[in-house]
Design brief:
Fumarate Reductase Iron-sulfur Protein, Chain B, domain 2; binds iron/sulfur cluster; mainly alpha; globular
Length: about 130
Amino acid sequence: MEKIPGESLSIDRKQRARLPSLDISHRMVTERVCDFDDICIPMTPEEAMFEASRCVHCPDPAPCVEACPTHNDIPSAMWLIEQGEFLEAAKLYRQTSSLPEICGRVCPQEQLCQGSCSHIKSTHRF
Ligand code: SF4
């Protein structure tokens, strides 16, 4: 699968930069102590598409890709997710990571891709 070149994407980066992030919902503790399911309530496809649409597609090399130990092509995956192409995005991640589902759970993304995201740095309040 080819990289989706952010430089040639016709997108309104200023408008994207103004989009708010969605709050992540967590399951109740009383529920969580009874199983080993995810703590976070998974996003709906529409929520994931919205979140992906906040990516401003930084010029190559994007800070998120540089910060990722496996150099996942995160901007291209965000573009595919934004279009609702979830399986294509998963295939893209599999090109650089043999266990993307596990990485998605154990990676300290707040310090890696997410922590280096130029959009989040400019909008997120820690
Ligand atoms: S750093 Fe953030 S805004 Fe830039 S390409 Fe990566 S995910 Fe998108």
